[in-house]
Amino acid sequence: MSDVANPSSSSTSLHATTTLGIVGGGTVGGGIVSILTSNAPLFTTMTGKDLLITRLAVRDTSKSRDFITPEGCKVTDDFNDVINDPSVDTIVEVMGGTTLAKDCVFRALKNGKNVVTANKALIAAYLPEIESLVKSVNEDRNEGTKPVEFRYEAAVCGGIPIISSMQGDYVGDEVEMISGIINGCTNYMLTSMDRDGLSYDESLQGASDLGYAEADPTLDVGGFDARSKLKILMRLAFGVDVPEDEISCKGITDLTKEDFEYASMLGGTIKLLGVAKKLSSTEVAAFVSPAYVANDDVLASISGATNAVEVLSSNLQATTYSGQGAGRYPTANSCVNDIIKVCRGDVNPLPFNSKQEGVEFVNDFKSKFYIRLRYRDQNGITADCGRLCEEHEIGIYSILQNPIKNRNDAAFVITTDSVNLSKVKKFVAEVEGKSWCRGEAFFMPLLRDEAM
Predict the structure, then answer these.
(1) Is 377 contained in some domain?
(2) Residue 28 DSSP label
(3) Which one from 74, 229, 368, 423 is the annotated catalytic residue?
(4) 31 with 145, same domain?
(5) Is pTM beyond 0.85 here?
(6) What does the buried/exposed string (b/e) look like for 250-272 if buried means 16 or more CB atoms within 10 Å of the residue's CB?
(7) Does an H or E element contain 166, and which?
(8) Is residue 230 part of a domain?
(9) Are residues 143 and 213 in the same domain?
């Protein structure tokens, strides 16, 4: 174990102090340190307290960093040094993952420390348990003692204040639907495929060059990152806790330039969306998938690595939140906002629609669909598709096809009337068994067209 202390400042202050321990000295951790130190006088004025970073846990204490460690801050490679320090009031967890991070967060809360985190995976996996623990810890505290706070604004969409909005802005309202572009990497890729005509591989390389894509981009391009975020938003909006693997999830890996050509013919574009909708007082459905979005829809204009979440509610109708969904300073900014709220003693509201009894998740949804089929040209293809659509109760809305350039590898698109996803899957499975069908069919919902 290594524990390194920077020289302490000799200055004194008449203000009360709040001491912070940061676990994670990477991109976001460094951003938090930079924002807190560069704006220290302002934050003292806002909170009436001096915010002191007294502990910092990193993987390697010998590694040089691109931020200045605050005076008096002890740097360690063991997060236990941080959470076990009785002088630390608030733990900021930004190391990521769900194993060590869970241990860190749960033990910090049990030790009576406030916790601020940007850990999406942790929140998606353990939010109900964390809420229960915070409640238990606060019930056991002495009367008049300040309650322990747990905040996680940065866990979803980085710099967009969607968590606090869902917790506090819809108290007298009812959320009916959430739809959003909640992964910056894939939105950048889809924007470049649409506007610049790039292939999937070319757009992924561009995202990697700009630092949007990880070395292993599976969580992003597979839709899994968006699914984790959607699960958290569903918990806040509808009071349902759904196992992630029950939420229908399709990534962008099967999209082609051809799909954007057909989307343009339909008057729109393609976005990777996370969508959740309340079907009735007892049912909620959700999916993550590429989706056709009409050009006049607000989400169609969200380009590059920008995120956006649209909340449809009874009183406010459609409200859209957009901004930077990732990156050092957008994410760190949300963490700092949470830290300031903790220091000011702001009451952290429970989700306005906390755990609801009798609300069930429905693993199916209804929408109009876009179905792209590749084929070897021969007689009877249209008849096969028409017959199978009839068998599966799928109404054909339109058929689109570019001029055939290669009769051994051509494509056409069927758009459907509103139908359940389960029926589309059965139709596709049968089509893929036909001798004329080349490879797997691609299908996606059409947003707004009676979706769900």
Answers:
(1) yes
(2) H
(3) 229
(4) yes
(5) yes
(6) bbbebbeeebbebbeebebbbbb
(7) helix 162-168
(8) yes
(9) no
> Where is the domain boundary, 107, 125, 151?
151
- CATH of residue 321's domain is 3.30.360.10
Number of separate helices (H) and strands (E) present in the chain: 14, 19
Q: Are residue 353 and residue 371 in the same domain, yes or no? A: no
What span, in angstroms and rounded, lies between the C-alpha atoms of 22 and 92? Answer: 5
Using CA atoms, how far apart are residues 364 and 376, in angstroms rounded to an integer?
A: 32
229 is catalytic: yes
Task: Verify that 355 and 259 share a domain, yes or no.
Answer: yes
Continuous H helices in 394-447? 421-431
Alpha helices (H) in 242-301, listed in sequence order: 257-265
Helix (H) / strand (E) containing 292: strand 283-294
Q: Do both 104 and 169 map to the same domain?
A: no
Determine the Cα–Cα distance for residues 444 and 422; give it in Å rounded to an integer.
Answer: 12
User: pLDDT tens digits, the chain, 452 residues: what are they?
Assistant: 556 555 444 445 567 899 999 999 999 999 999 999 999 999 999 999 999 999 999 999 999 999 999 999 999 999 999 999 999 999 999 999 999 999 999 999 999 999 999 999 999 999 999 999 999 999 998 887 889 999 999 999 999 999 999 998 998 899 999 999 999 999 999 999 999 999 999 999 999 999 899 889 999 999 999 999 999 999 999 989 999 999 999 999 999 999 999 999 999 999 999 999 999 989 999 999 999 999 999 999 999 999 999 999 999 999 999 999 888 999 999 999 999 999 998 877 655 445 566 788 998 999 999 999 999 999 999 999 999 999 999 999 999 999 999 999 999 999 999 999 999 999 999 999 999 999 999 999 999 754 44
> Which residues form the domain of 53?
3-151
Is residue 343 one of the residues assigned to a domain?
no
The verdict on 122 and 172 lying in the same domain is: no
Closest CA to 415 of 396, 431, 430: 396
Question: If you search the block for the tokens 């957008």, which residue do you land on?
Answer: 330
E strand segments, 331-433: 360-362, 366-375, 396-400, 410-416, 419-420
Kindly state whether residues 70 and 139 are assigned to the same domain: yes
Single-letter amino acid code for the residue at 348: N
Q: Are residues 173 and 146 in the same domain?
A: no
Q: Residue 365 burial by CB count (10 A; 0-12/13-18/19+): exposed, middle or buried?
A: buried
| Boundary of a domain, candidates 341, 362, 383 | 362
Overall number of domains in the chain: 3
Question: How far is residue 359's CA from residue 164's CA, in Å, rounded to a whole number?
Answer: 23
- Assess contact for 85 and 112: CB atoms under 8 A: no
Q: Other CB atoms closer than 10 Å to residue 282's CB: what's the count?
A: 11
